[in-house]
């Protein structure tokens, strides 16, 4: 049966092309009051962008069909789109709603008008639970918009799956360098994404592979880890494969994981191992490090006031800690002072530089290991400006924990890390992995705090 979906503002701004996501045999109605509200929308930048795109779409359509045709304008998917105004006088049942705005009441009235005057099967689409409950009280069916831009945490892309196969298949993968994905027992149970990792269980053991071009291939690049480094768990094996794959193979790496899972440590260790003038494997000319907390101007660090501690300390304490840990692994006899001096020297000699996120526009960044930490606190609207700075020979590594949001304008479903992960999954250029929060390499206290706090 044909349905008539009435969309509120938050439903329209939950996705690109929202009116094309309800099936070709339905009608989508935008109340005039909602359309007016979209013109004045001044919320988050990413939502403003969606509002502008939707207004542009409406402006491109014939007004007469949108406003005066009972069927509306036929969209490219076969559904019909209408702009509908409520009657001037609100029903008494709606007028009595003291806890709802004039806009809310006008939307309710549109739904009731469609039901009574046109005998429509109306469904109000809203993310607001109080709106949905009140709609039901008024005799209007209500649902959430089911095509959010970002899925809830449990449904977000992890970068790997657990599967089963026979030991014969695993042996064949290592012997031939590949095996058909159809030989995995759960082949038909998953949507397969390019560069997705597999933890493969068999009757006699386990193996790790990567999906590419309908094949499962064994790990290649993680066989040669940086000096003093090791993979502490399965997910870190996959992480090292992402990091050590050359930039022409894996120019974009996305790593999710709780504090202490090794995201920053492994990324910096890889970059140092491949740094021209510092190591024998000269893959990158420089290391750039950025976090959303860096607010200094786009000046060279040498021109900022104070010594290296004044310049770096407030922003990259975590990076300095990881540098010292890397040097400690290579030489356990170094004192804390010596470790600190070695880390400071990397900044003073220009091997590692701070990159303020707000000053990336116009830059082209070649042959660089660019580590962007705390990506979950970056707005989705800023992600485009970062990724598009990459030039040949660069590897951009985005790190973060979707559960540790400090930006009041973002949340676990709406942040730069999840946005980038969901948009780029399946791209041949993008490799991803989610580290297990239960496998923190920090202390037992840190592990306990992660669970309790």
Question: What layout of secondary structure does this protein have?
Answer:
Layout: E1 4-7, H1 9-12, E2 27-31, H2 32-39, H3 45-59, H4 63-67, E3 73-74, E4 80-84, H5 92-95, H6 102-118, E5 122-125, H7 129-137, E6 141-143, E7 160-164, H8 167-176, E8 179-180, E9 197-201, E10 206-212, E11 215-218, H9 234-244, E12 252-256, H10 263-273, E13 286-290, H11 308-330, H12 336-348, E14 352-354, E15 368-372, H13 380-387, E16 395-400, H14 416-424, E17 430-434, H15 444-452
Parallel strand pairs: 1-2, 1-5, 2-4, 5-6, 7-9, 12-16, 12-17, 13-14, 13-15, 15-16
Antiparallel strand pairs: 3-4, 8-11, 9-10, 10-11
Helix pairs in contact: 9-10, 10-11, 11-12, 13-14
Describe this structure in words.
The chain folds into 3 domains: about 5-145, 5'-nuclease (Rossmann fold); about 155-220, Archaeosine Trna-guanine Transglycosylase, Chain: A, domain 4 (Roll), CATH 2.30.130; about 230-450, Rossmann fold. The two termini are about 50 Å apart. The protein has 15 helices and 17 strands. The strands form 3 sheets. Strands 3-4-2-1-5-6 form a 6-stranded mixed sheet. By secondary structure, the chain is α/β, with parallel strands linked by helices. Helix 13 (about 380-385) links the parallel strand 15 (about 370) and strand 16.
The tally of structural domains comes to 3
CATH architectural group of the largest domain? 3-Layer(aba) Sandwich
Label the structural class: alpha/beta
Assign an overall shape. Answer: elongated
Strand content: 15-25%
Q: What's the CATH H-level superfamily name of the largest domain?
A: P-loop containing nucleotide triphosphate hydrolases
**What are the low-pLDDT stretches, counting only 5+ consecutive residues below 50?**
294-301
């Amino acid at each position: 049966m044909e349905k008539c979906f009435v969309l509120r503002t938050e439903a329209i701004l939950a996705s690109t092309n929202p009116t094309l996501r309800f099936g070709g045999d339905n009608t989508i109605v935008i109340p005039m009051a909602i359309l007016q509200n979209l013109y004045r929308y001044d919320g988050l930048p990413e939502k403003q962008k969606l509002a502008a795109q939707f207004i542009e779409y409406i402006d491109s359509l014939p007004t007469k069909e949108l406003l005066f045709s009972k069927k509306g304008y036929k969209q490219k998917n076969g559904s019909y789109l209408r702009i509908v105004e409520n009657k001037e006088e609100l029903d008494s049942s709606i007028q009595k709603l003291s806890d709802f705005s004039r806009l809310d009441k006008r939307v309710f009235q549109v739904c009731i008008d469609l039901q009574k005057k046109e005998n429509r099967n109306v469904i109000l689409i809203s993310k607001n639970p109080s709106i949905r409950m009140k709609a039901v009280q008024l005799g209007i069916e209500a649902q959430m918009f089911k095509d959010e831009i970002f899925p809830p945490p449990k449904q977000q892309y992890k970068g790997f799956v657990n599967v089963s196969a026979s030991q014969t298949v695993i042996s064949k993968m290592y012997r031939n360098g590949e095996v058909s994905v159809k030989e995995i027992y759960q082949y038909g149970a998953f949507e397969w994404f390019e560069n997705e990792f597999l933890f493969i269980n068999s009757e006699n053991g386990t193996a790790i592979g990567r999906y590419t071009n309908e094949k499962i291939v064994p790990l290649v690049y993680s066989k040669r880890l940086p000096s003093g480094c090791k993979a502490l768990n399965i997910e870190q094996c996959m992480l090292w494969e992402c990091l050590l794959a050359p930039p022409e193979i894996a120019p974009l790496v996305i790593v999710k994981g709780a504090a202490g899972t090794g995201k920053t440590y492994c990324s910096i260790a890889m970059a140092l191992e491949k740094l021209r003038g510092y190591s024998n494997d000269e893959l990158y000319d420089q290391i750039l490090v950025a976090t959303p907390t860096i607010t200094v101007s786009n000046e060279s660090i040498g021109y900022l006031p104070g010594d290296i501690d004044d310049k770096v300390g407030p922003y990259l304490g975590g990076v300095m800690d990881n540098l010292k840990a890397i040097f400690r692994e290579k030489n356990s006899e170094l004192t804390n002072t010596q470790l600190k001096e070695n880390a400071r020297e990397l900044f003073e000699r220009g091997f590692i530089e701070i990159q303020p996120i707000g000053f990336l526009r116009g830059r082209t960044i070649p042959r660089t290991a660019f580590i962007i930490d705390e990506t979950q606190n970056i707005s989705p609207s800023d992600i485009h400006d970062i990724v598009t700075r990459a030039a040949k020979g660069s590897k951009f590594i985005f790190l973060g924990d979707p559960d540790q949001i400090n930006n009041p304008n973002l949340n676990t479903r709406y942040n730069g890390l999840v946005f980038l992960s969901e948009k780029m999954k399946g791209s041949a250029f993008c490799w991803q992995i989610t580290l297990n929060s239960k496998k923190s390499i920090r202390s037992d206290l840190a592990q306990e705090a992660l669970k309790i706090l």
